[in-house]
Design a protein that fits this description.
This protein is mostly helical. The protein is 68% helix and 0% strand. It contains three helices and no strands. 0% of the residues are buried.
Length: 98
């Protein structure tokens, strides 16, 4: 029970921080780390950097790219949740509930 209270508190704190930042940063663009890294590399090399390779496939639009990223995050969350549930169930097996 103590773990659930801690997890719930952490989630509420992060949600409050997210809402605060989202409300105060009006007009801001959501950008990824790739775009920021590209700017830094261009500044450091003076625009002379050549990538080592090109992507095999590039999504046709930003929406598809976001969908694939979200799908990847959802699959990761399912895997992590499964293992947490598995070990939690294994730990409480044979013990009466409180």
């Amino acid at each position: 029970m103590k773990g659930e209270i801690i997890a719930g508190t952490v989630i509420v704190i992060f949600a409050a921080l997210f809402l605060y930042v989202a409300a105060t940063n009006t007009g801001a663009e959501w950008g990824g780390a790739d775009g920021e890294a590209e700017v830094v590399v261009e500044e450091l090399t003076g625009g002379t950097y050549e990538p080592w390779f090109e992507p095999i496939w590039e999504p046709p639009s930003g929406e598809i790219e976001s969908l694939l990223f979200s799908l990847q995050a959802a699959i990761g969350a399912i895997v992590i949740g499964y293992f947490f549930g598995y070990y939690r169930g294994k730990q409480s097996k044979g013990q009466p509930e409180e």
